[in-house]
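Closing statement on the flavin-adenine dinucleotide sub-project.
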Amino acid sequence: MLERGEVANSWRHERWDSLRLLTPNWQSRLPGHHYEGPDPDGYLTMAEVTEFIERFAKVTGAPVRTGANVTSLRRTDDGYDVTTGRGEIRCRTVVIASGACNRPAVPHLAAAVPASVRQLTPFDYRGPSELPDGGVLVVGASATGVQLAAELRRSGRPVTIAVGEQVRMPRTYRGRDVLWWMDASGLWDQRYDEVDDLERARRLPSPQLVGTPERTTLDINALTAMGVEPVGRWAAVRDGRALFSGGLRNVFALADLKLERLLDTFDEWVRRAGRDADVAPPERLPPTRVPASTRLQLDLRRGEIATIVWATGFRPDYGWLDVPVLDEKGRLRHEGGVVDSPGLYALGLPVLRRRKSTFIYGIEDDAREVIDHLAEYLSARR
Amino acid sequence: MTTVANGVNVQALLEARDALKGAPEAAQFTWRASSKWQDGVHSTTTVRDFFGLGQEQSHKTESVFEADHPAVFAAEDNGITPIEYLLVGLAACLTAGVASVAQNRGIQLRSVESTVEGRHDIRGILGADSDVRNGFTDVKVTFTIDADASRQEIEALVAQSQKRSAVFDALTNPTDVTVDVA
Ligand SMILES: Cc1cc2nc3c(=O)[nH]c(=O)nc-3n(C[C@H](O)[C@H](O)[C@H](O)COP(=O)(O)OP(=O)(O)OC[C@H]3O[C@@H](n4cnc5c(N)ncnc54)[C@H](O)[C@@H]3O)c2cc1C
């Protein structure tokens, strides 16, 4: 196992200070290793996740070679040549487990932002104290965006959040963590070859969830109640002004409708499973409130916005991959983790084999199936 | 696939989507209109040809649109005002979207009606107040739909039609517009 940094590198170095997992503690489980603390419904801090993964590496005796940055992977006649910061390796098979979130994805708009405005990605952001005073424009309202918007608003700054496609979720539903429902109802186990539109499922933004001891919901209504101002998707910069889409109402309507369908699915599942007595009665969330008037533009030269935080998602970095297995959009071509090159495999990508594929909790089932394939590949070529 | 008959050939649209995924050049269309000044603020615009799927294309017939201003603007009212054409485009586009999405989701439509209202503060175009914009203050569309579907499904149809609408996008998002003199 080659690791350019240390074990649990992304959790140590690529997350902000206040972050806790959005998955509850009982879902912090890896094969043969799970959370055993006193609070199964709580959410791990970054120090705790790091420790959790370190412990897993230790108890499994994982042969991790740290400080071994892979700078090149090339195909040979019978396998692959790997160049690392610690020498060359030849192997017959490779599993790409380098993560789905190596780089913040920042749209081209960033280049048109006036130089007077500071721009940050979640990788640069540690906490509010490092930001200049003044207003913040958070771009994106998925898990990262809503969490940073809330934290920055609590620091006393005026915060505007540009909202595109979003996945709204309550933290708890009928008395249970919403991710309990995703798991128990089988939705998270839905396989990649079963979902209607796999391409869409793989592009789905992360849900508006935060892990806090209070188990609070952090949707747009919660943000507006704190005084965060929602605006439409950021569409363009013209003459130093940010122009936002006028389609905010529909973005809200779509998220509300999808949430309602999700809750209907939960209700239906629990009824059919005869488990209605295990949970509280059904509830419905109020619709997302549309502000009386939404701003369609913001002058970035006026000083009102001191900082822009790009919470526009993450993408993998395959700069080291010298095998032609990327599509025209730079995504890995694979079928359930079996990459389009003999003996090459992948793990940890969105809906790799199931909806839960990118969660700590989701890796076990995927890993088993992908490694079964790999083992068969090797034994057929002995 | 589905037994509903809304008159939309969804199969053809889905096939086109798959075909164009691998052929982005063929997906490049150019829509055209030619306009001619008549008199006063009256103009006549004709639409017939467009470009798409790699070649010149034509509508079955040429369409002619008269635009003018109403009598309250001291004009002849030979046709609707230019900004009203945007409402025509929006209503037609969303309606087409509702029908297509309904077909795709197997929902039989019986009637789809809508009213579109664009509120407009004309002090902008008159230059009477520089804080007022020239275009619409806001636009409101109200659909009345009779279909074999729940209210939630109908709301989802309308939401999805906005998500895939060319005119909704053109109205809600900025577009780079160049106006030259030939
Ligand atoms: C902000 C954020 C919050 C998240 N919150 C949660 C959550 O609450 N719960 C949850 O289950 N999941 C969460 N996730 C998803 C999380 O990333 C996955 O659950 C899990 O950590 C993925 O593990 P991984 O090993 O696939 O990827 P990573 O954790 O990214 O590990 C990949 C490793 O590969 C190394 N690497 C990359 N390239 C090279 C190279 N060229 N050479 C050598 N080594 C390399 C990296 O240093 C890294 O250590 C979150 C993700 C983000 C970005």
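Helices of chain A lie at 9-13, 46-59, 143-154, 178-184, 198-203, 220-226, 248-272, 363-380. With this model delivered, the sub-project is considered complete and its resources will be redirected to Aim 3.
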